[in-house]
UniProtKB/TrEMBL annotation:
Sequence intervals crossing the membrane: none
Keyword Signal: yes
Keyword Membrane included in the entry's annotation: no
Domain of life where this protein originates: Bacteria
Signal sequence bounds: 1-20
Domain annotation Superoxide dismutase copper/zinc binding: ranges: 45-169
Pfam families named in the record: Sod_Cu
Keyword vocabulary terms for this entry: Signal
Species name: Jannaschia pagri
Family: Belongs to the Cu-Zn superoxide dismutase family.
InterPro entries: SOD-like_Cu/Zn_dom_sf, SOD_Cu_Zn_dom
Protein name: Superoxide dismutase
Amino acid sequence: MRRFALALALAMTAPSALLAQETGTTPSPTSLAGDIVAATGDQLGSVSVTELANGVVHLIIQATDIPPGPHGMRLHEVGTCEGDFSSAEGPITGSGADDLGAENLHAGDLPNAYVEDDGVLSMEAFALPDLTMAMLTDDDGAALIIHADRRDFGLTSPDDAGARLACAVLDAIPAAEEN
Ligand SMILES: [Cu+2]
């Protein structure tokens, strides 16, 4: 009877907690989340990032009060959103500036988002296959940037996404929230 009670207690312990206990490390997160903020500090929305079973990174991005029109969307190197958001530094480039064989396409690039007159941005996207969860969870983290202008990916014009309108620091979701 006593042995049964112990087995039950073990079974009820979260597997992730057991794993952390055994290895002495925290398992790398498979989900990240962040609040999208304007340069004024106003909160505009949220982003969630999930690594699928095959390693592909999937994003859900929702925000309000975004100027109507197309907006470049990109994952940047540093998880800091201060001032004009230059604190997030450059886009995640993966293996190099010309990774993926295209001068204007980097691992952190996402498709443009299109916002109607209501100012609502709502998109779901897969990241490029070059992007890994490890790039987003390195020591200095990562940030999502919503740019002022549409990106052209070098197809027909110089590729300039314009100013950084909004920014979200991508943080690991605490285990308690994830359940
Ligand atoms: Cu960018």
